[in-house]
Amino acid sequence: MAALPDELTVCLIADPKLRDPAQPARSITDRAAHFLDAVRAAFLDPNVRLSLAGWSFGAWTALSMAARAEADGRPVEAVHLLDPPPPGSGQRLAAYDDQQVDAVFARELSGNGGGDGRLSESGRAYAERLADCCRTNLAAMAEHRLPRLDRTPAEVWIAERAVEEGALGLEPTGTDAWDAHLTHPFRLHHVDANHYELVAEPHVQAIADVLAAGSGPRHPSPPEEPEEGTVEHPYTRLPERSFWRTAVAEPDAMDIGELWTPKFAIGQDAPVVTAGSCFAAHIGRALLDEGMHWYDAEPPPPGLTRAEQAARGYRRFSFRTGNVYTAAALRQWVAWALDEEKPPEEVWAEDGTFYDPYRPTVEPHGHASPEDLLRARDLTLAAVRTALTKADVLVFTLGLTEAWHDTVTGTVLPMCPGTVRGTFDPARHVLRNHTVARVHRDLTDVLTLARGINSRLRMVLTVSPVPLTATATGRHALVATTHPSPYCGRRQGSWRTSRTTSTTSRRTRSSPASPIGRPSTNPTSARSPPTAWPS
Question: pTM (2 decimals)?
Answer without folding.
Answer: 0.53
